[in-house]
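Good morning N.,

You mentioned wanting to compare the apo and holo forms, so I went ahead and generated the holo version with IPE. This is what I fed in:
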Amino acid sequence: MDLARPAHRPKGKVPHAPEARDESGAGLHVAIIMDGNGRWAVSRGSSRPAGHIEGARTARRIVEAAPQCGIRVLTLYAFSADNWNRPQREVAMLMRLFRRYLLSEVDRCIANGVRLTIIGRRDRVPGEVRKAIESAEAATSEGRTLDLRIAVDYSARDSILRAARRAADHHLSREQFSRLLGEVEHDRGPSREVDLLIRTGGEQRLSDFLLWECAYAELYFSDILWPDFSAKDLHAAVAEFHARERRFGGVPAAAAG
Ligand code: IPE
Ligand code: IPE
Ligand code: MG
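and this is what came out, ligand included:
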């Protein structure tokens, strides 16, 4: 990374206070833990793979709806590093589904100005998936409407550790470390501070997702299982985000005088 590049520090702002991107007009970064596929399927008497297939359809609908909600960056948690611990058949099915999703979505992404990037490790996914990742990223690299980041074989702790190893002895600022963290994930875009983190499926935990980037994210937990999550639900989550006051360690605006 270019350590000589000055850290971005808006005039008159407290150092390190992340900016609420919606106010600067640059659009929100929304991250989603797409949970509940298995329970959705089982509650219908189907097997878990049926839930994952329906979950992929939901992902497509949410990606389409995101720009109208003011979302500029959308990060979707598709497969965690710990998900390798699932039964081998489910893992193999998820990898096949992921490859199919990439192959089938490229044209739609290009048409809609979506730039697709995969974050997470790439050395453990099957070669066919890796190829699909690389060609989808290359084909969509000109997209400017939405940055769609899909987390596969992703672990925030691993990612922080890899960046920390590279950063050792460089005395980096937080901003520089954030950029480095993006780079270890092959992401050279702007700061990836999360504005709003949504988790569907009723659990209220982060499951090793974007631990650094969510430092000041607004958290939104929904009981809706991911396959049932709709564009309307996304709008509702974003509306709630706008109704909240982000303080970044300061005092409420009304008390600031
Ligand atoms: C999320 O749904 C998808 C992945 C983790 C791949 P789950 O498969 O975790 O669904 P539940 O939580 O078991 O219902
Ligand atoms: C988190 O869901 C990972 C994804 C949604 C891809 P999990 O279902 O794996 O998380 P835990 O096990 O409930 O924490
Ligand atoms: Mg789950």
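The chain has one domain: 28-243.

Happy to go through it together on a call whenever suits you.

Best,
F.
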